Amino acid sequence: MPPASAPHRSRLGNSPLYWEIGIVLALSLGASAVYSIVSIVARLTDTTPLADQSATLNGSQSPREWLDFTYQFLGIAFGLAAVALVLFLLWRPGQSPFTRLGFDFTRPGKDLLGGFGLLLVIGIPGLALYLAGRAFGFTVAVVPSPLDTFWWTIPILVFAALKAALLEELIVVGYLFTRLRELGWSTWTIIVSSAVLRGSYHLYQGVGPFFGNVAMGVVFGWCYTRWGRTMPLVVTHWLLDILSFVGYPLALGWWPGLLAPAS
Questions:
Q1: Could you tell me the pLDDT band of residue 182, with boundaries at 50, 70 and 90?
Q2: CA distance 239 to 206
Q3: Does 101 or 252 have the greater pLDDT score?
Q4: Over the stretch 31-54, which tens digit does the pLDDT of each residue have?
Q5: Where are the domains of the chain?
Q6: Buried residues in 65-97 as b, exposed as e (16+ CB within 10 A)
Q7: How many Å apart are CA 200 and CA 161, to the nearest integer?
């Protein structure tokens, strides 16, 4: 048999990576993006206006307290399996995947400083965009935490925030950037593609959060290409979600007209 041509060899060489990326996304945030697209179509074609609809995060899983805790804990723990999968896929002999993604404790001071800096850059405009979306009717009322609490509610919310931060930043930024670079994609094509994916799996919250998360994805992607580290991104995302989840009852008291779900 004659040897394969160079373009053919290139296609054969790249094909497994594309399959790998597709499988990873299908098992994680790619599937979330598909469901979110279906969700926003359903919301926009519903007779109820978008402003009068709501989306609940971290809702109760059972009226029985011990079952509620168990279901929520297991859901978070098993949700991290996709993170373990990408770390396994990025492992190389002699090179830790944590090092490859810049997710380690080699520079804690700079990572924390970068994380808090990004929190200010992303958090304040993000809150303003959400409130504007509620005021103009293109964002649903997002209920990020239950109002009836148990002793374990805040620890579970903090754990859920950590899961979201790890899942999104290690897969949508760290893993995806690494693999797409290996496939020869340009830097800005990777940044924009990752940002659009980030926005897509937030579409269930409305049109405003889509654009807000795309902007967040562009900023995070640019920072990752500059720093080569996901740790500051995880810090920022974790803090943002903790503030959103745990601070929701307080914010609801401040802006009930904008944040309260329709009765």
A1: very high
A2: 22
A3: 101
A4: 999 999 999 999 999 999 998 999
A5: 27-45+62-258
A6: eeebbeebbeebeeeeebbebbbebbeeeeeeb
A7: 19
Q: Is the Cβ–Cβ distance between 83 and 74 less than 8 Å?
A: no
Give me the amino acid identity at 113: L
| Angstrom distance (rounded) from CA 203 to CA 231 | 26
Look up residue 174 and give its two tokens.
Answer: 């760290």
Read off the pLDDT of residues 102-116 as tens digits, 9 standing for 90 and up: 999 999 999 999 999
Considering the entire predicted model, what is its pTM? 0.90
- Please, what sign has the CA dihedral across residues 184, 190, 193, 194? positive
Q: What is the pLDDT of residue 106?
A: 95
pLDDT of 6 > 70? The answer is no
| Burial profile 125-163: b = 16 or more Cβ within 10 angstroms, e = fewer | ebeebbbebbeeebbbbbbbbbeeeeeebeebbebbbbb
Side-chain half-sphere of 235: how many Cα atoms within 13 Å? 22
Whole-number Cα distances in Å, 35 to 9, 40, 200: 35, 9, 9
